[in-house]
Design brief:
Layout lengths: L1 E4 L5 H9 L9 H9 L3 E6 L8 E10 L2 E9 L8 H15 L4 E7 L3 H8 L4 E10 L4 E9 L2
Parallel strand pairs: 4-5
Antiparallel strand pairs: 1-2, 2-3, 3-4, 5-7, 6-7
Length: about 150
């Protein structure tokens, strides 16, 4: 497996992955492009480092001052339980630490127990909630945070 920086040409494959991952945020290509043009960054996992068509998963983040926000993380259902999400998360955390970000945070659906367990196993802890944060269906978000070091 190869982890590399997400490139604009990867966005159609990212959209394909998120389309089969209903628990992931469903962003439009234009949203990803706009964030990449601003300060957003991402990483992708693949078997073939040269091909965007064989992506297994992705993570997309946004730096903010000395923090980093995880905006979206998804692994294709056919490739889950192989450590891919952990590798993507670790790539973003290493970048955050190297670029002077001291903490990371994210929102997750309060009902998404598998994601909450995943993040807790990577040193994240609950830091609050955001009532009625999600729609379709309406649901609270749990705010999670971790230090990068």
């Amino acid at each position: 497996m190869n982890i590399r920086v997400l490139l604009p040409d990867d966005i159609p494959a990212v959209e394909s992955i998120q389309a089969v991952c209903p628990e992931a945020s469903q962003w439009r290509a234009s949203d990803y492009h706009a964030l990449l043009e601003d300060s957003g960054r991402g990483w992708v996992a693949s078997f073939d480092p040269a091909s965007a068509e064989r992506l297994l998963g992705f993570i997309f983040i946004r730096p903010a001052a000395d923090e980093m926000e995880i905006l979206n993380l998804a692994v294709h259902p056919a490739h889950r339980c192989r450590g891919i999400a952990g590798e993507l998360l670790n790539a973003s955390l290493l970048w955050a630490a190297a670029s002077g970000r001291h903490s990371v945070w994210l929102e997750v659906r309060a009902s998404n127990s598998s994601a909450i367990h995943f993040y807790e196993s990577h040193r994240f802890r609950a830091a609050g909630s955001r009532p009625r944060y999600y729609s379709h269906p309406t649901e609270d978000a749990l705010l999670l945070t971790a230090a990068t070091s």
